[in-house]
Amino acid sequence: MKLLEERIRRDGVVKAGGVLKVDSFLNHQMDVELFNEMGKEFKRLFADKNINKILTIEASGIGIACIAAQHFGVPVVFAKKAQSINIDGEVYSTKIQSFTHGKVYDVIVSKKYITPEDRILIIDDFLANGCALEGLIDLVRSAGAAVEGIGICIEKGFQPGGELIRQKGVRLESLAIVDDMNAETGEIKFRQQ
Amino acid sequence: MKLLEERIRRDGVVKAGGVLKVDSFLNHQMDVELFNEMGKEFKRLFADKNINKILTIEASGIGIACIAAQHFGVPVVFAKKAQSINIDGEVYSTKIQSFTHGKVYDVIVSKKYITPEDRILIIDDFLANGCALEGLIDLVRSAGAAVEGIGICIEKGFQPGGELIRQKGVRLESLAIVDDMNAETGEIKFRQQ
After folding, report:
1. Which of A10, A80, B85, B136 has its CA 20 to 30 A from that of B193?
2. Within an 8 Å CB–CB cutoff, is residue A62 touching chain B?
3. Tens of pLDDT along A1-31?
4. How far is residue B135's CA from residue B73's CA, in Å, rounded to a whole number?
């Protein structure tokens, strides 16, 4: 998606260690006009899928998931990182390894909000190692629901998550795929799509 | 706001200990059509304010903040619950007591995204004891920015947060104020507004 690639080039900051900072428009400050364009694009990409629910994970996936959901006319469910969560009754749970925070945490979703009838689009802001996505796929499948597709804003093509997910046979669409970046020059190379 | 009150009456569940469960449409599963109506109402209520940014706190405030932001044409910033957060440079931070999770946590926002020029609308899904809001007001004022108002989806009028915030002279608009509720009968009494 050209608009997103241009924005990443303009406002993204490449740091050592494969870190791409996009917190000025994507995951701390959020440009909702850009989100709206991304939501439209997700709808275009998944127009052939009969999606009835969007699933994301707290916290930074929630904004884009909600704006995208307006284009699909469906509700959003967000998976919660568990502590003593104020959720009724039974939940599906899975474990996710966070590279950012360097630990494993439990992620849960209420059984009330994913059912075997659901045809789910998973949306998240970033895909790197794919651990969060694997956890979300696991939650959906625990419920007997179908993962119709996965929509990602920015995929780090030089990390293994994208290939891992595509190998599972899940339809994955990333609006921008960064194949290479250079912390010294700030240069970012996007995959042709 | 009638639409929200009706929805709370229909789908909200009153539990013992002053707990109101609205996770079927507000803070686990999210009805983005309802969010859009709430966003419009926030815009109507704060039409006289020259707001240039919306501030919320992860996680359940993010969805309504983003949808509301579309009606204001402004970006959203969400304050993060701190661990080893992947944020550049300096941050404003404050401490917030969580009654739900029974602990105190640090909440931060990057200094880049709140500046003295900002005229901020704070949006959150719930107001009970007001601790989260006090923390967010503290963050805004640390930055020398102005809190133009606070928009809340559901205020628990029988807890002290609303009065506490109004006593500070901050303009607070809650779309629904629950003045009383009964866990045995499920009855919910809303404040006339």
Report:
1. B136
2. yes
3. 999 999 999 999 999 999 999 999 999 999 9
4. 25
